[in-house]
From TrEMBL, chains A, B, C, D, E:
Pfam families: EutN_CcmL. It comes from the Bacteria. It is found in: Carboxysome. Keywords: Bacterial microcompartment, Carboxysome. It comes from Anaerosalibacter massiliensis. One of its GO terms (cellular component) is carboxysome. The keyword Repeat does not apply. This is EutN/CcmL family microcompartment protein.
């Protein structure tokens, strides 16, 4: 999984039918040499802008959704505790 | 998923039988440290050149197509709203 | 999918039983910031050295083969038309 | 698989229901040109901070867990012997 | 697939139960702009240190093993012929 910070919401009115109702956010990887890489993630656990989160990618990401047929490859699986400090 | 801009159409007369009828486009990742990376995507939601889109990759990409047996690993799943601004 | 140029044939006499009969080629990604990255691909549509091709990777690549149990993660799925120009 | 060093624990009180009870750690890739890339991994074999470990990623990572429906894409599959030296 | 050179053996006494009996080796990608990236691979075709090999990754890698439930994401699928020269 990746450590990322949620930096904004993403709105896409025209999208795949099966994505309706999902919340998309822009995440930026923090820490390590991939810092600054960005990806769009689906959030189902009420994370907010500014939160440090754990991102799961690939086929495993679909395990967060109720339906395995949704075209999503990155989801927020956890919000890192504020007092959890690692460089 | 990735944020990308569609920059051109891609034509391939000789291709896998199962790809006939699909629309291929060249996309370039925008934003973050992967900016400038390119990939070919399948579009099924009538996106056009210049659009900022959400790209889903890997096995999840096949969820956009009606048939799981098509050799496609990247599809457009949404068109980002024009008034959705994020740096 | 990736845009790549086929640059050579690859011969491997000692290989997995299930790979016998498959044609392996060396491909180099062209265009965008991944230019110069190389991978070995399986070709089943009679592409040749010098051709610009569309490469499908991951589990989707196995969809080009008749058997889902073959250990292959990258295949040529199309040959880009010679008069298809994109920068 | 990747060679990485475990550098810290990761705590996330708010997370996917199915992740409860799993131990998350921060790993940093060592050796080769990906050195310094970081990812969060699940450990089920009692590895500790400072250990050099073998990380398995993607759908294969779920093979370490008893349940294929858990949204995890990276796990520790082995601890490299201390006297195993490679540059 | 990737072109890599096998550079060492990797020993991990403490590892996933299902990995017992498998031979792990350290491989380094050669050629192209990913040169120098390293990964740990499983070898089942008696490759040796110094051999140039073809590496298959991801879910396809598990196709080399008899059991789809083994947490392995990279395997040697072929040994490149010594007289096969490509720049």
């Amino acid at each position: 999984m990746l450590v990322a910070r949620l930096i904004d919401n993403v709105w896409a009115t025209r999208k795949a039918e099966s994505l309706n109702g999902l919340k998309f956010m822009l995440a930026e990887i923090i820490g390590g040499s991939s810092t600054g890489q960005r990806l769009i993630v689906v959030d189902t656990i009420s994370a907010g802008i500014g939160d440090r989160v754990i991102i799961c990618t690939g086929s495993s990401a679909r395990r967060m959704l109720e339906d395995d047929d949704i075209p999503v490859d990155a989801v927020v699986v956890g919000i890192i505790d504020e007092d959890c400090n690692f460089e």
